[in-house]
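Hi everyone,

Forwarding the result from last night's run.
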Amino acid sequence: MDQEKGPDVAENTIAQPAGVRSETLDAGEGRTIHLQRGGDGPPLLFLHGAGAAGQWSAAHVALAERFEVIATEHPGFGRSSLLEELKDMDDLVYFYLDLLDRLELERVVLVGESLGGWLAAEIAAHSPHRVERLVLIGAPGLRVPEAPPFDVFLATPQELGAALFHDPAIAAQMFGGEPTIEMIVGAYAEASAFARYGFSPFLNNPKLERRLGRITAPTLLLWADDDRIVGRTHGERYAAGIPDARLQVIEDCGHAVTAERPEAAAAAVLAFTA
């Protein structure tokens, strides 16, 4: 795909259960980008974290009661092709700005979790006029030397599960079984894409903090009280840099907020956007 042009919407739109539609976007040269849509209302673009591509969680269900939720799968994640021309986070920002144009979404409520939260912050700083309201959930992206993010690339599955979830039972359920070959191959592909966007410098853009003042959308920073991946210090730094931003903490929860406490996360977003 030519980076300046963005993907075109293909004709093959597949009906999904419970009113969720699956769409395949043509990214050129036989490559595709996948997204899901559900609900009816103002557009809400949900940007997933590094390990949550293709999920339609209870949080999505709740948000779709008020919004048309558009949940993309980043290039290289889930069912979306890796686009070799996208080399870093900056390229990914322009990809999404092009995607908004192609989907004819002039202005959206923008919700990003973890890696998707960093991406959402970059988009909101780059093009403030495209964002109606902004929600960042456990977002990295800022350089905080005294509290660096947990190194997910070096962690074992067990260590990663313990860091992602407050409840050990959920961690055991998510990471306790034997992975299939398909799961291993998918995880390797997504880790490669994740590294492309966020490995060097590690999960931060040194320029982002001084650009936060460009964000004009009302902003909610949603953080878990037990976030061992991206600590609350990062949320406090975002709150200090974004004008009139508000930090809200979800109790008894780990980094994977929409997986561990989906109802609480959705309720916070809905209250903020009411």
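Residues 1-15 have pLDDT under 50 and may be disordered.

Cheers,
N.
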